[in-house]
Fold each of these.
Amino acid sequence: MGVGIKVNKLNAWFGKTQALYDISMEAPANHATAVIGPSGCGKSTFVRCLNRMHETVPDAKATGKVQIGDIDVYNGSSAVQIRRRIGMVFQKPNPFPTMSIYDNVAAGLKLNGFHNRRRLDEIVERSLQVAALWDEVKDSLRKKSGASLSGGQQQRLCIARALAVQPEVLLMDEPCSALDPISTGKIEELIFQLKENFTIVIVTHNMQQASRVAEFTGFFLLGKLIEFDKTEKIFTTPSDKRTEDYVTGRFG
Amino acid sequence: MPETLIPTEFAAAPISLWRRGMNLLATLVAAGAVLLVLLPLGAIFAYLVYKGIGSINWAFLTQTPKPVGEAGGGMANAIAGSVLILAIASAIGVPIGIGAGIYLAEYGRNRLGDLIRFTADVLNGVPSIVVGIVAYGLVVLTQGHFSALAGGVALAIMMIPTVSRATEEMLLLVPNTVREAAYGLGVSRWRTTLSITLRTATSGVITGVMLAFARVAGETAPLLFTAFGNQYWNWKINQPTAALSLQVFTYAISPFDEWHRQAWAGALILILLIVLAVSAVRIAANYGTLKGAN
């Protein structure tokens, strides 16, 4: 089951440059929340703060309160533990190039010390099925490298890999930006199904995509959250002039 | 006709004779450079075969040296000694070198890292005989006698900078997105480094290790007063040990024709052993590689 996300006064920096200013919002459980905004507005930084990936960049830091289910992300938990419960899919597909398809999906479990062969087989198959990749790869699970797949397949492999560790939240940082329309369609369909069991936060440059997959949308500009509301409201009757300008294509 | 930024006559112009000529010339120069790289190796190998093959026989590969004046005998103990010393050198030098390379690539983006890099580069330039003296002081004087261990330590010191810089460079080639993928799965940093980053860079790291290995395999100077040499069989790591390079050196500067012939044969065997070891490791490393892996 997914859990809700509550963000309160989140600030983030790269060295001395502030990237996020006092972000506060709530993403409800088992829904998809889209994050939109022009390039460089802090969308990616925002989702990377949710699972503390932000701090893996040298000199980067973040302050504020992020509550994901019962986890207080910036208080009392280790970053490694948090990331086991919050899956992440990146902008560019990044399978482990020297590992087989099977090992890619099993990596999160194996590297955290889970070695039950039969359970692993089940979880790998299930994750690949949920990611709608099973039929395409089932005959070459252990023979082919993850890097030998096409871009769209690689991204679904990365989704399967994230699902295999059974997270409660799935963060997607522009998961379709490197994909063709057919692969994009497959992944959007997938997001629809995943909502039943996960809470999804998806960063996207594509406003149609935001309106197709997400119930809630937040609009970021220059590191600030300008408006957060139901997706429909953001795209039809936004309350802020800047949001309106952006969604109608007047800038950005 | 829409206005174009690039003049159309540029695209339409036929490729001139001059350009085609330059293209051909550049290709020929590159091919010539390849030939010049291969030529010395080919020449050395051919000459070694020409001079040495006649003295290689079963006795040469199975017997210890005969005293001066007696015909026959071989370098079996030196072959074994070289294998022993190189095994010791690799056992010490490869883990330390790879460990240092990991530190430099993953944690060493700071002053200490710069210092280690500089030290490694200087160590790489230290004459091999000086490295031999260091091993003499460290091991031979402490133990009170020459040994295979002392030879191995000397060669290990020579391997470390090459292995560590190669490891560092190969790890830095692994895209950061691969590390992030592991972090995103809740894999700890040390685990990511060993199981993901190092694994992704394996083939490059192996190349670095083999370069270092091949380089020290033929070293003679650092062994002169560490392994010292031995006319008899020795398998103990704390006893003086023969090595092919030492044996070739001793035989080559002797006044006897028979020894000269054996020195050529020994040099040929040494090169063949290096080629064999490097190829075996390459084949073993490729064996597990998956279809489409890069």
Amino acid sequence: MNPMKQTVNVLVPVGQLGGGIRAEEVANGIAWGAHAIAVDAGSTDSGAAYLAMEMSKNSCAAVKRDLQILMEAQARARIPLTIGSCGQAGGDAGVNWTRDIVVELAEELKLHPRIALLYSEQDKRVLKEKNAQGKIQALPPPHPMTDALIDSCDHIVAAMGAEPYIAALDAGADIVLGGRTTDTAVIAALPLMRGSGAGAAWHAAKIAECGALCTTDPARGSGVFLRIGEDSFVVEPLSTGIRCDTYSVSAHMLYENSDPFRLIEPGGILDVTAARYHQLDERSVRVVGSRWETRPYTMKLEGAAGGPFQTIMLIGIQDPSVLANLDRFHDRMLAALHGRVSRSIGEGVDYDISLRLYGWNAVSGLPVSSDATPPREVGVLFVATAPSQEMATRIAKTCNPYFFHFPLEAGTELPSYGFPFSPAEIERGRVYEFELNHVVAVNDPLELVRIEWVKRFDAKA
Amino acid sequence: MPNLRDVCRYIRSKNAGPFWVTIDLFFKDEESFRKYHASEAISPPRIAEAYGVDPALVKYFAVDNLNVVKISFPRKTPQGGVVERDIHQGQQYVRLLSIELT
């Protein structure tokens, strides 16, 4: 079945740790001769709050459940387990959160893995020095790097490449828990360490980073199995009930990438312009012709900052006269709410109110064409944004009677719109944004990375 | 002239990191792709206009082995900002469905 003589085989059990690993799939991958288990645990997709607040999108229970399957497989098969972007954002807190779950499981399962921890959260002082040396470069859309921008961030991480994982594996790690890492590097590490071709290793890792998303039926499987050779690789689903075909595999290069041909990694660029996809058998696809161009080593920075605070309220409207005049209703109500705030709280408060008409144009924010049919009902989300939670809530409370009872026409009876909650206002917390879109040049891939070991299971310690 | 939705079997939009949006147009078949992939209606200037972004930053790729056109551009407001409407940008393709191809 496999045309390549010697391959390095990586079991990628799921697109994100905590996403629901299937034990039977992991058993398949082990039986097929996996040399490593590799999985990504994070992403920036869900927003900056997770990095700023040091929390995971996944629950501890879901991550522990997935980790149990992987740790048991790791111990039985005696192959390394590498996990990237631990705890969602990959900050130091995320690595420690994952470490604690792994240590707890090791005790429960009576396992003794050698655990390496890779930290890539950055010291602001070091980054300022790098910036002063001209080692930090803005990515498009460019935004110049300044000390103030660095200081504005609550937490800053640098995305690691494969090298820190290779260093930990070289030093005998059974389990490597990494902070922020490119989705691909955690998968490419062992193949690169064992001499697979760089083009094949990085391309395979990109195809597998979302698990079964590169198969024809992602809902019926979780992971994929990679066989990586010198100048080609083979990918197949871990679930025997589904398939990879040339289309499902090649189309994955489009996913969440701004460029479908070139993927920028810390020490180079994966170029798949000349890659060719062949159906090897019913379930697996062989890929040849992926190229790797070595470049000066840079790490992408991600920094999250907390901004103002928000308090929200929600109503539902079915009144046909309002529905037939939604834009006018929106504009009149917004003006009335601003008037109410300036009368009761006063001028000079830095705040924002936005009214979003779900069922009309909340998702696009664009004007609706004048011949559009009125909807059957709309939900109106009120969002007050202010420098403090207290002020945002004060604005919401002030607006409360107007928001719930604002008539379409002035001087008519006051309606009551459908509001679902009491108390009506919901404190949403802060607005978090990613502030950095920059790369930092390093002299060595480990320069901005700290490697530590969990001592309690380390027989040699 | 057909609308974009008539010549594509699938259209999607998604964030590509916190600062970029990417839109994939999966044309129905090779014929539709050949005929319309270079249409002015989906050219970078027109996409820039539809999304209110700088045309110089719009990237356009024709992926011929997949009959796909990929268009990427920076988000107008950063992900998760004060007036965020679509964190994943997953609904932002919809405004392209009925654009007329020339």
Amino acid sequence: MQISIAKNQRRLLIILLSVPLLLLTLGIYHGLLQTLYRSGMLSQRTFAALDFYQGLTLHGVINAVVLTTFFAVAFGHACMTYYLNMPVNRLLAWLSGGVMLVGTLLAAGAMLSGTSSVLYTFYPPLKAHPAFYLGAALLIVGSWIAYFDWIGMYRRWKRTHAEVKTPLPVLATLVNFTIWFFCTLAVAYEVLVLLLPWSLGWVEAINIPLARTLFWFFGHALVYFWLLPVYIMYYSMLPSLAGGKLYSDNAGRLVFLLFLIFSIPVGVHHQFGEPSISKGMKLSQAIMTFGVAVPSFITAFTIAASLEYSVWRKNPQRRRLFSWLFQLPFFDKDRYLFAYLIAGLILFIFGGFTGLVNASYSLNNVVHNTAWIPGHFHMTVAGPVFLGILGMSLHLLEQVTGRRTRRRRIATVVPWLWLIGLLTFSTGLMVSGLKGAPRRTNMGLSYLNPESPLFRTDWVLWETIGVIGGCIMFAAAGLYFLVLVDLLLCKKTKEAGLSFPAYAVLHDEPRAALLDNFRPWLAVMFFTLIIAYVPVFRDIQNYTGPGAKPYAPESNQPLELTK
Amino acid sequence: MRSMDQHEIKIMGWTGMLLAVFLTATLLGVSRYATDVPDCVPYDAAFLEPKVTRLDSNLYQVNLLAQMWNFEPSEIYLPVGAEVDFYLTSKDVVHGFHIANKNLNMMAVPGGVNKMTVKFDQPGVYEMICHEYCGSGHQHMRGEVIVNYPVK
């Protein structure tokens, strides 16, 4: 079913989808270059006027923050409009988009000027340009404005639909942005209260363990903010794309509501190696991190069951345990979205299990900050998340421009080529990480430079495999942009509007009040957050010494501040 | 819960059990092989002074200082069988400290002091690598633990 949406909203969607895709060309370019630097094929600080660490900052900020946030807002607008059949508030939606855009431009300017090479985690006391911090804050605040509008829409809809199940994608969108709102409060505090005055020279020193803990309060919930829009696609679109139905509707609801509880109070598992947080807190959040694996295991079952059903439905004979796996429409060019989603799901199997390794308390000592970590998270954020964003962006752009891409075969090849490249890339990085190779390091200057006394022959093979994977991924991304440019050039063939693959459910259980009400889940979420984080902040208070002055990446002396 | 398919309920039980197995394995590893995460120590400016102290016949204390862009001390000589308490902090920005085949893996954070204990049973040169981006010299920040003579 296609619904029509106002022209101004279509325009807004086009802007929200295409701005980050445009920036992505830069992010992906430097993704490829990093593999070359790391492997020693480039043995220099800068290439084509872009420094390694400056490019790494751009790669992280654009790919993991700008693209994902813009997409989550655009997809949120689309889901709220489509499933509630209500327009978003024109003023608020444009205001939200405008603030995000200004923030992005400020941060991009700061990074391109070379004054903010602090990577996307911007750990102090390395100091970025104030515009970098301000830009990041505006990007976040802009996304809040869209969320506030959606809350109003949901309330208005609920008034006339009190006893009707909230559509799953609406519930999930609101869950996702509720997580986002509360976790970004912490990073907004870090940026606006700690970093910005300090970067302007108004405050001399800041508490570094506190800033890091505030960052990771946000940082792990961030990965679910990336992931949940794609989970919405898995639940509400993937089953019908395969020709089947979602196995259980209430299981889906439970999954999203569990994320509401478990997404934030797990951030300390990124800080197992840090001082100022006691072992007890590290262990308790390790256990909580196992809790956040539960909804993903349920998802694995529900989606697999839905796909299995889709095959038996068409072909009820010859039911063997795994034979359905080979009868899915993996390469159907008329359903290219299926290919993007399933390829992402396959990558996520590996991404999920390597994530459990990282979360496993002292096992983290083996992998922390080695190349294993980017090997792992590329199989999540550059796996299901990125492929979901690419597939859905193409689908939405087709809808809102009233065009139909002519390069459907190429569009279908992209996710599979990406999958091959990414598995190669991640294998290379993870093995070299297990052999001790660090992440975030221009190793072409030292460890992988044959002329350096630091040369490590045992890392060469695996970093080279990383390059091969990187080249394949780069080629896949190139093909995707080819499809996009071709879409721009082709003629309008149908009425512009909005439509998604139908949401159909096999076990459409009756409405369970508990699974259609935010209040009890929010109460548990606040309770868990307090239990998990109050003792951590107390530890930081008890164990931390004096604050730190700002440093520039180029000098081992603190920056002289002009008062 | 009658409002959900029975298989879904079952899979939640299986998930719980699988995660319990993972968790038990982790905790067994901690207790049996004495692999633990770093301990945090109340901050004391004395840890900013790098030194190697012999506490007992084979017990050593190393105050390791991370700074842009080296470790102090950058070469640590130890006898085979030395058991070492590493205390780590940073003079300037955040650094990492990793000895791969010893699973010695800590963050050096200004304002915080980290502690980890490790035993060097085998002679060899153990490379210490900074694995957190710490500025333009990061890729050269490293040091060595040299374990090369028997205990007297």
Amino acid sequence: MQEDPILYILNDLLNYEEILACMVARHNMISVMPDQEKFKPEVMQIWDIIHRAMEDVFVVIREYSQTGLGEIEFRLQNYEALFYIFPDTENALVAIIPALANKGLIEIEMENARREILKIMEQKEIPTNQ
Amino acid sequence: MDGINEGINISKTYNKRVTTGIDKLDNLLSGGLPENSITLVSGTPGSGKTILCYQYLWEGINKNEKCLFITSDERVSYIIKQANQFGFDFKPFIEQGLINFLYLDIDKTEIYRKVEEEIRSGNYTRVVLDSLTPVSEVPVWVSDVHEIIPTDGATETTKYPTGSIPATRMHIRRIMNMLSKDNCTALVTSEIPEGSRNLSRDTVSEFIADGIIILGLDTTMDRRKLTIRKMRSTNHTLKPHDIKITETGINFI
């Protein structure tokens, strides 16, 4: 899966010290995720609860994405989860960062990553063999 | 009925493995599905449940095992035609008697008898029920704790009202027991509605099955996942695996 261009973008995001974990996900499914070993160890300790909270957020995303919902974030313990939603879809680019992180640069990188992924999605054709 | 131990197969040991026809999946399952187990294959429509079943039976045919495909969703002719599109040409093997297709008309009340007789008389080692969902939704009449009878005119009883969890559980257990007889290793598919957190449509079969394989589909990102959620007597990962569906069936990426 290393040749996956979306995975390449996510791996690139993980190079930022304050992005502890990232993925492209939707309700009930993490569609693209870097190797979990690349996530910062501290986030793995609360991964289960963050994952459960994410599932609830994706219910909201599914409900409001079509009406122009662009971003959601929530703070849980010492962490924040950022959701950059792909317009009119149930999917979002998700990053987990420290609650006290300086979000200026992170927000720019997340927005750039979202746009790059959107370009890839537009280029791809959905297979029809199923 | 056999009394209190009816439905409890204490001889199950799961030492032997039954290969699925997908090498990577067999590796993840320590060699394959546990022999004489029932595995629930759940997923949203289009996630590849039926294709996985084709591969499983095709593998059986190649090992000269007798296979049974029970369908409640599609007519047999359509199933055979669709399988052929993925390179599984079952027709010659039907003539050889290695595989049999059984269509269950769920409007008929004799579905239990039909399945039980076929499994008992057929000496099958691999059985697929595709899908459990419409069969489990057949109205049933529960009479005391021992009897559960599909009926056209199901009415509520005071003990187990039709559609209650105990009635559904008994109904599904009865279906599963039919499949687990005579050393069959079975795959049972179940549809999961989009967005549901349940592992099956009926919300009960996941607790009764020996194993659960979840097939996920993300149409936006054009991704498919296979997750082994549960498999008795098997040390397995819970991590979702990327898969794709090609003209040869399900392949791991």
